[in-house]
Amino acid sequence: MSKYTEDGLERVIISRAASGDTGAMRAVYDEYSGFVWNLALKFTGDETLAEDAASEVFVRLFKKLGKFRGRSSFRTWLYRFTVNTVINFVKKQRRRNSLPLKESAYLPEEDAGTLEERDLAARLLGELGGEERMILILREAEGMSYSEIAGVLGIKVPAVKSRIYRARMRLREVYETVEGI
Amino acid sequence: MRCSDELIIRRLDGELSPEGEEELEIHLKGCAACRKKASDLVASAGILRKGLLKDSDPPETIWRAVMEKTRVGYARLRFYRAAAAAAAAALIISGVFLSRSPGEGYLSGFSSLVFESVSEEEWGPDGALEGDTVIDMFLRGEL
Ligand SMILES: [Zn+2]
């Protein structure tokens, strides 16, 4: 077995982080917090909620890190862990606070398209269910291929295709209603 | 060829063969409904692409929150383990002194309470990491 995981993070770092070594935990955090944060932000469209979701991901991650067996790449394992944690976190929050996700802010970056484009993206995403929203974010924002998405979601490529198909059709429906106003 | 949403979407994802592409193109020329569908699919996907383009740096508050919760978690785990060990010892003692009335003494009630907490996955249920308990406050030295 290689000293490094496929994505270059040392295995010894991962096992140290699993046993609570703060320096090693920080190394894992530095490597992946960008992905976790941006995914959470795009999924929730709300900075405060995204911060809470991202910290939930890392708290749970450090708790479960010892369960990583090195069968898949660490990156794929962590991406899947992140996707599931973020979706579940938002579901839990919505149950607790009946969060109006449809009207959420979605105001990330100054130069991410024009204000109208960002606004429209927010409105469209807000109308989708969590799984549909996530798969389109992985495809359109993260630029993942079908097989990468299959790895992250732990499903087969044909299932990815049919989910993306449904999500795209749903997005189009929403687009046509919004456009029609 | 007949109307096909699937071909339209495969083209959008760049998954269509040149022949398929040509076939679809011919169909689109003669079918206004599919043309509209195709252009709406492209437009809605384009909106996501543009609207979600830019990534930003994670705020440092995330790391602080993680450290806060993780420290409390480890400390609580140590506390439970120590409590469980003490309860186990107490159980042995109570077994010696209270052997004539098993299950009646308050110690057996206490020990089952503690063991219940420990038997949750590592640190107790996820919910237990949120919110403050008296134990959390004690561990942070606030009591
Ligand atoms: Zn047609």
Q: What features would you describe in this structure?
A:
The complex is a heterodimer of chains A (181) and B (143). Chain A is mostly helical. Chain A folds into 2 domains: 101 residues, Rna Polymerase Sigma Factor, Chain: A, CATH 1.10.1740; 79 residues, Orthogonal Bundle (Arc Repressor Mutant, subunit A), CATH 1.10.10. Chain A is built from 8 helices and no strands. By secondary structure, chain B is mainly alpha-helical. Chain B has 2 domains: 48 residues, no CATH class; 61 residues, no CATH class. In chain B, 69% of the residues lie in helices and 0% in strands. Chain B has 6 helices and no strands. The longest helix of chain B has 37 residues. At the A-B interface, helix 2, helix 3, helix 5, helix 6 and helix 8 of A face helix 1, helix 3 and helix 4 of B. The structure holds zinc ion.
Beta-strand content bin of chain A:
under 5%
Ends apart, CA distance between termini of chain A? 59 Å
Q: Count every helix of chain A, treating DSSP H or I runs of 4 or more residues as helices.
A: 8
What fraction of residues of chain B sit in β-strands? Answer: under 5%
- Low-confidence stretches of chain A at least 5 residues in length (pLDDT < 50)? 100-110
Structural class of chain A, by secondary structure, is mainly alpha
Oligomer designation: heterodimer
Average the pLDDT over all residues of chain B and give the rounded result: 72
By DSSP (H or I, 4+ residues per run), the number of helices of chain B equals: 6
Name the poorly predicted regions of chain B.
100-138
Q: Rg of chain B, please?
A: 32 Å
How would you sum up the global shape of chain B? elongated
Mean pLDDT of chain A: 84
Largest interface: A-B, 51 and 39 residues
Number of DSSP strand runs of chain A: 0
Q: By CATH's scheme, which homologous superfamily of the largest domain in chain A applies? A: RNA polymerase sigma factor, region 2, helix turn helix motif
Total beta strands of chain B:
0
The CATH first-level class of the largest domain in chain A comes to Mainly Alpha
Please compute the radius of gyration of chain A using only Cα atoms.
17 Å
